[in-house]
Records
---
Amino acid sequence: MIKLFDQMLRAARFDSHLYEEVEADSTALVPAMTVVVISSIAAGIGTITERGPSGIVIGTFTALASWFIWSLLTYFIGTKLLPEPQTRADPGQLLRTIGFSSSPGVIRILGVIPALGIVAFAVSAVWSLIAMVVAVRQALDYTSTVRAVMVCILGWIFQIIALALLYIVFP
């Protein structure tokens, strides 16, 4: 568990070497999923006064679905639509790196403090997005950070559309 928390700290510090390590480590899928779950539980606790305990369960499942969808979309966009010549990746590499990029989401637990809730969630969102750009740049072997930003933004837009469709189909 200490190794996982160390990796989460490194991910939150935008450590590109950490993202290279988890990209190459096919056994890091479960730890990446664990990071997503920890982050989503922190968010659920942060909103418990507004949503109650069910927010933790719903938030965890939503976060896992979002992580999976966004990772696959990012894989497709990054390898098929916007690859660089050296881009070589598989979906697992994106699942692992993007999973770890959700590490900053742990600060959403501060949402239990009414005055900090909105700030914690906003800071977490920006911090996680920056970490995701680093994760995507490393996983897709990009030399351009701008390209990684474009892939993340496009993935986010498509993810929102996909989740909206899921909510329509499964209200």
Note: DSSP finds eight helices and no strands in the chain.
---
Amino acid sequence: MHSFESHIRNVPDFPKPGIVFKDITPLLQERFPEVIEAMSLGINWNEVDFVVGIESRGFILGAAMAQLKGKGFIPMRKKGKLPPPVIAETYTLEYGTDTLEMIKEERPARIVLVDDVLATGGTLRAAASLCMKNKLEVKAMSLLINLTFLNKFKEEGLPVHSVLNY
């Protein structure tokens, strides 16, 4: 078992009061190759065509996983960052809404969806929905951290693999 927890910095009251932010920067500095290996475990890579990384830390982790496993990488970005044609998914946040976008795919593919932290699950649900609308079958979701006390992904039966669970 890896001891990644000791490399995660807890930042109280960030980005707002009452939130304890899990800063993965020290972990990525000290144990990046091991983190990418751990995030890649338990996935049937023979059933995967591409890795999709959610902006922005999902880019770092997902691109490294794609490189490790010899797969292509697809970025999922915030609204207005990709050239057309794009396909979009708008979702509700605690205060307001946000939109994720991807370049429109011409052919179906199978993907692993990657992000750093799963909190309430709004972003990940929207990302999975966007992939499905874009002909991309989500074979697995890989997260570095799952804040299980904030979401019910296991009960929903979604294919989530997380390295650290809180």
Note: The chain has a mean pLDDT of 94.
---
Amino acid sequence: MPEPKAFIDTNILLYLLSTDVAKADRAEDVVRTGGVISVQVLNEIANVAHRKLAMPWIEINAVLEMIRSVCPVVPLTIEIHDRGRSIAERYKLNIYDAMIVAAALLAECKILYSEDVQDRLLVDKQLQIRNPFR
């Protein structure tokens, strides 16, 4: 039986760059099973890689290109924005996490791999949050 359609949050993908071998390996497993991302995820990876990890742009671009080659990317839309605000209010999530949840819902994903949102939270009776490191 195939895995349900999944969405991968930024924090999971950033572990691909980690020196924590166990978490990097688990992040690779998640990516290998397949998952959708949004433009927000790409923006957040670029920001963290540049500001916190001090990676040169040539390396950041290579990482983003690799991720885009294995993960379908959904655009940011006003529909995501509107749904995200509603989710933030209803589930008491920060706005950026709520936008990730909204993008996952609108991409018709059943699973959201994230370390930032409450593990096992069921959103709108259709999206299960899963922390792959638990």
Note: DSSP finds six helices and six strands in the chain.
